[in-house]
Write a structure and sequence with these properties.
This protein is of the alpha+beta class. The chain has 16 helices and 22 strands.
Length: about 575
């Protein structure tokens, strides 16, 4: 095998050259005295033309056979402007079959009719499809750009352990039993958080790692059990300086991979502004349709749904879906109501702007003056649809924020090729869980409170803000970070605020807390989700498309059938007994 070129390389400049190509057989077309064959490798496709002398061997050659072809580059009579090699073809004078192939269970082409489960079962074939290869090649370009940027910024690439101590805060750990220490377990890292902070204690000052992370949680389109994050930490840097490093990284990746210059600095909004205007802490800013709080305006309206929400300390918010009222029947609005109920909302009220007036089932509860004020507050115009939610603040924001995103996609309110970044800053330090009746860290227990909020750690948790920041792209949390607590006393106060006992601190974090005693520098950093970034830059619908061998929605690998039970001897060696519940 002595190929002279790849299958995406030859152009009109190579006319009359003798070449040898190798690749997989795509489609064949027999036109009588001539036969045509598309030869494919990861670089592209080249058309091969065969004379009658090849009829016998071509009858044996099937799709996905691997062949080598020798021939002369000639100009095509019928050019294909959609192919990089569309001006030429190879006039073959030798063909050799290198390996045969069975009939594939799916079409190997950009457009395939195979369902995702079949694609994952035969992932190695799915990855032959040019569209899938380009996604993984784009992912490679992203990581190469990231490494170039951070290497040039004097960061050091350092690996951290996969086998760690379990710290059951946040998502569930994946546990790994120890053969040497029966009854004891390692945990796979949810992130390298503590180790990268220890590297700051070690004096490296600038660290990065493209790190594998593991979280035992339910899957969705942008989540996998194992994922990759770009992990960055640095000492002696202000929050603005850290965010500037992150922005520079994003800008370089966008330029290198997409050829797009993004405007720096990237805009910022507070967590409070994001929730007020968009209902979510990862707002899609490619379109408007902001939420408007009407609680004060409707507090004296005798509409039981609004009254009940406000009496219980909740709120009433609305959003204006422009110029769609005539297209939204009662049945369609009922579908939207069912959607918001999945976010715990009790229902969805609405008004339409018809003949310059607000009309609809709830209009009778409002005076003409009140309707006019609502119309003004919502910037209502003819054919607008105004949707209302009334409940607790969190439920109203969550339901309307996700409805906003759904409607924007359905109504095509944004350009899918636009990339709109924003920072969300000043996150709450804590979030309260009513089921367990305790506070949890909004990010993690090592996040530093915002300057001036240190005393609120114990005395005013609900209003304590953190020096944390997320970078958001097109409605996805691309990553985030924070300044870290570097003083032992402040870290102990943060643990106390989360309800940790001294025994819990010692068993889970004692080794880390000990390190804070030995001159820990001020430090902070950020992490970016590499899978999500690759998903967005390739316009994919799922991160499964940019991971070579992902799990399905049921957390299984259809190709290997993992996970599977293991033999009794393996379990016995690990000191584990499995109680199979029939």
């Amino acid at each position: 095998m002595n190929r002279t070129h790849n299958n995406g390389e030859l152009t009109i400049a190579n006319i009359n050259e003798e070449v040898e190509l190798i690749g997989w057989v795509g489609k064949k077309r027999n036109l009588g005295s001539l036969a045509f064959l598309d030869l494919r490798d990861r670089h592209g496709v080249t058309q091969i033309v065969f004379g009658e002398a090849f009829d016998e061997i071509l009858r044996e050659v099937k799709n996905e056979y691997i062949i080598s072809v020798k021939g002369k580059v000639i100009e095509r009579e019928s050019k294909n402007p959609n192919m990089a090699t569309g001006e030429i073809e190879i006039e073959a004078h030798e063909l050799n079959v290198i390996n045969e192939a069975n009939l594939t269970p799916m079409i190997i082409a950009d457009n395939t009719d195979a369902l995702e489960e079949l694609r994952l079962q035969y992932r190695y074939l799915d990855l032959r499809r040019p569209v899938m290869q380009q996604k993984l090649i784009t992912r490679h370009k992203i990581t190469r750009s990231i490494r170039d940027y951070l290497d040039n910024m004097d960061f050091i690439d350092i690996e951290t352990p996969y086998l760690n101590l379990s710290t059951p805060e946040g998502a569930r750990d994946f546990l790994v039993p120890s053969r040497v220490h029966n009854g004891s377990f390692y945990a796979l890292p949810q992130s390298p958080q503590l180790f990268k902070q220890l590297l700051m204690v070690s004096g490296f000052e600038r660290y990065y790692q493209i790190a594998r992370c593991f979280r035992d949680e339910d899957l969705r389109a942008d989540r996998q059990l194992e994922f990759t994050q770009v992990d960055v930490e640095m000492s002696f840097m202000s929050t603005d300086q850290i965010m500037a490093v992150g922005e520079g990284l994003i800008a370089k990746v966008m330029k290198d991979v997409k050829g797009i210059d993004i405007k720096l600095p990237i805009g910022r909004m507070t967590y409070h502004e994001a929730m007020e205007n968009y209902g979510v802490d990862k707002p899609d800013i490619r379109f408007d349709m902001k939420l408007v709080d009407l609680s004060e305006m409707v507090k004296d309206v005798e509409f039981k749904v609004f009254e009940s929400a406000l009496e219980n300390g909740g709120c009433v918010k609305a959003m204006n879906v422009k110029n769609v009222a005539k297209d939204f029947s009662r049945k369609k609005i009922d579908q939207l109501t069912d959607f918001v109920k999945t976010y715990k909302a009790k229902g969805l009220a609405y008004l339409k702007v018809e003949n310059s007036k607000l009309t609809g089932p709830i209009a009778k509860f409002f005076t003409e003056d009140k309707l006019a004020k609502i119309m003004a507050a919502m910037a209502g115009q003819e054919n607008d649809l105004i949707l209302f939610a009334a409940d607790s603040y969190d439920i109203v924001c969550d339901s309307l924020g996700n409805l906003r995103n759904r409607l924007a996609k359905e109504l095509e309110l944004y350009d899918p090729n636009e990339f709109a970044f924003t920072w969300v800053v000043d996150f709450p330090m804590f979030e309260y869980d009513e089921e367990t009746n305790r506070y949890y860290a909004k990010h993690h227990p090592f996040t530093r409170p915002l300057n001036g909020h240190e005393d609120k750690l114990l005395n005013d948790k609900d209003n304590c803000l953190s020096d944390a920041y997320d970078i958001v792209l097109n409605g996805y949390e691309l990553g985030g970070g924070s300044q870290r607590i570097f003083e032992q006393q402040l870290q102990e106060k943060a643990f106390a605020a989360l309800g940790f006992t001294p025994e819990q601190i010692q068993s889970q974090f004692g080794w880390f807390v000990e390190a804070l005693k030995f001159g820990t520098p001020p430090h902070g950093g950020f992490a970016l989700g590499l899978d999500r970034l690759a998903m967005l830059l390739t316009n994919s619908q799922s991160i499964r498309d940019v991971i070579a061998f992902p799990k399905n929605a049921a957390s299984k690998c259809p190709m290997t059938q993992a996970p599977q039970p293991v033999g009794e001897s393996q379990l016995e060696e690990l000191g584990i007994k499995v109680d199979f519940d029939e």
